[in-house]
Design goal:
Bound molecules: cytidine-5'-monophosphate
Strand content: 25-35%
Oligomer: single chain
Largest sheet: 8 strands, mixed
Distance between the termini: 17 Å
Structural class: alpha+beta
Helix content: 25-40%
Number of helices: 10
Radius of gyration: 19 Å
Length: 306
């Protein structure tokens, strides 16, 4: 069926999940956020947003965990559409259909990917022609990880994670994501870290210099040695079962493993695409997580695909 003249075509945008290869959490700021220094890697697991012309704003979601998510102003994708409309001075007339592959509350920034994809999709659908810098500014206001879902690749994030500097590294790395049953709340994990730091004085992971150097020199073993996450003790304190997942990857031959962001997803570095497939099957067989995915990275950020 052909579309009436003057009615724009739907726009389809996909945006990637992220893994934090290094996450150093500083002190709690007055605004309730923690100062961060993190190395983000965008990986080949994508959510897809289809933006269709509509009267008013509407949202549908399908896929992994989608039923649990709000379909109104509480959803980051909804907020992203409103942000573009307000910034450009247009009405937020769009229906958003979000297809989720990225697990919800998994520490992979799925909600941020949806928001980044929506920013790009609405800008294209409404012809508002926002520049990259404007989109990044809107993204940073929406959430700490949204700007990275827009840019993708490998980047060093500072501030609360929203200030990005690209990391100049070539290469492609293959990972297994062990996706846990249930999710973890990001604010609860940060709060648990504050509690642990006050009561037990947990050690800090320090700077990301060694990891960035390993990425630049494409030294796989060194990358494995320097994966680190200050939120790991907090995630493990709330989800003791993740110790078994980490141990299983280690025993089954992963180069190294790390909890991504606030968890509970564990990312295992492998030597090749083939080793990732083999490790994924073995981890699935060990029964230490809900499901597994093989991914590679870096991949680009939010892009129009149709
Ligand atoms: O920015 P975003 O909405 O993703 O953050 C969710 C929550 O995670 C924040 O409300 C805060 O509790 C915690 N957070 C933090 N420091 C950061 C990022 C997130 O404390 N740098």
């Amino acid at each position: 069926m052909s579309r009436p003249v003057g009615v724009p075509e739907p726009v389809v945008v996909r945006a990637p999940a992220k893994v934090n290869l290094h996450l150093a959490v500083g002190d709690l700021r007055d605004d309730g956020y923690h100062e961060l220094m993190t190395v983000f890697l965008a990986v080949s697991l994508f959510d897809e947003v289809t933006a269709t012309p509509a009267n008013g704003l509407g949202l549908t979601m399908r896929g992994d965990g989608a039923l649990a998510l709000p379909r109104d102003y509480r959803n980051l994708a909804w907020q992203a559409a409103v942000a573009v409309a307000e910034h450009a001075g247009v009405d937020p007339d769009v229906h958003l259909d979000v297809r989720k592959e990225i697990p919800v509350a998994g520490g992979l920034a799925g909600g941020s990917a949806d928001a980044a994809a929506t920013l790009v999709a609405c800008d294209a659908l409404w012809g508002t022609g926002l520049g990259r810098d404007e989109l990044i500014e809107l993204a940073a206001d929406l959430g700490s990880d949204v700007a990275f879902a827009l840019t993708g690749g490998i980047a060093l994030g500072t501030g609360r994670g929203e200030r990005l500097t690209p990391v100049l590294a070539s290469g492609r790395w293959h990972w297994v994501l062990a996706i846990a049953q249930g999710g973890l709340s990001t604010p609860e994990v940060y709060a648990e870290l504050d509690r642990l730091r006050e009561s037990a004085g947990v050690p800090r992971v320090g700077t990301a210099d060694a990891l960035i150097n390993a990425l630049r020199t494409r030294d796989l073993n060194a990358i494995g040695d320097h994966l680190a996450n200050d939120l790991e003790p907090a995630a493990l304190s709330l989800r003791a079962d993740l110790r078994r997942t980490l141990r299983a990857g280690d025993e089954l031959g992963a180069v190294s493993g790390v909890i991504s962001g606030s968890g509970p997803t564990v990312a295992f570095l492998t030597r090749s695409a083939d080793s990732a497939v083999k490790l994924a099957a073995e981890i699935a067989g060990a029964g230490v997580c809900r499901t597994v995915r093989t991914v590679f990275g870096p991949v680009p950020g939010a892009r129009v695909i149709a």
